[in-house]
User: Fold this.
Amino acid sequence: MKYQKLFEHYNLSGNQIKNRFLMAPMTRSRASQPGDIPNVLMAEYYAQRSTAGIIITEATQVSLQGKGYAKTPGIYTQGQIEGWKLITKAVHENGSKIFLQLWHVGRVSSSKVNGLQPIGPSAITAQNTSVYIFDGSSDGDATFVPVEEPREMNKADIEIVINEFTEGAKNAIAAGFDGVEIHGANGYLIDQFLRSNSNVRTDEYGGRKENRIRLLIEISRAVANTIGKEKTGIRLSPFISFKDMNDPEILETIMLAAEQLNKLDVAYIHLCEADWDDAPQIPSDFRFKLRDTFKNTIIATGNKTAEEAEKLLQEDLVDLTGFGRHFLTNPDYPARVKHNSILNEISDSHTLFGGGTAIGYTDYPFMK
Assistant:
């Protein structure tokens, strides 16, 4: 077989996965309102794509304060838990595993989204950064609004956030998920603490790298202690600097975090890598060092071709490979790879974020 590794079974800390295709988290903004509740349409969407060995859900806020975009789902009310049960049941019936991505956006928000002032490690506004709402002013399309200045978090705020992630993890297991992924990437709250340009605190959560990784490690430890380390994964994005997150120290900081996550024995580290056409390539020495530092599963996601994914797997630099847009438009992506079939393209970019029908969401055709 051309893609031998991609189609191998894999043991993810006790989760038996039918292939090494991972469906990457993708925000689609289809949660029912009011209440940001997962629904039947979302269950159909995920069920279609359970051709992947494992699915990581779209980012899911652990609280109203943690919400940064309209119509994104939550995991902090009973209604949300019940909604997610529809999805986990559908995915499991098709023989796949599914982890919930736990999310707090931190400073990347606006009171126009959730009625609250954003919070963050420091009172520094993310420059050239917007979030979206649906206000009826643009024929159903999302309207982008600039983020607002965050309030610097105090110790009580930090304790609340740790508890929110822990409760979110408990709720995820109650909803039938196989585990959770802590979102520490892409300029959101945990990533904001990791980076020296967004975190200028002078207490034990700021300053030197050992302090800036503290929130990530404390959340990871709390979640692992609550639901099990084998059900706890972490997403990081060392090479992505949008949302005003360019930090010259981030690679060293991420590697220090990886050392501590290895000690916690969490299930995996998921690298969110740049996915635009001329994006920087991840240096091989970083991948080698991460493999030497972290003993458990390593995942890489970032608009890779099947050939690129297979090569990384063959070289033992990653254990699972994530695909986003390929699964968005091709619910049967593994079969298309296996048979070298033509891939569907995005039908209408207006349907990427938001919409209450199948159009641009569950109507992408399967291979004939």
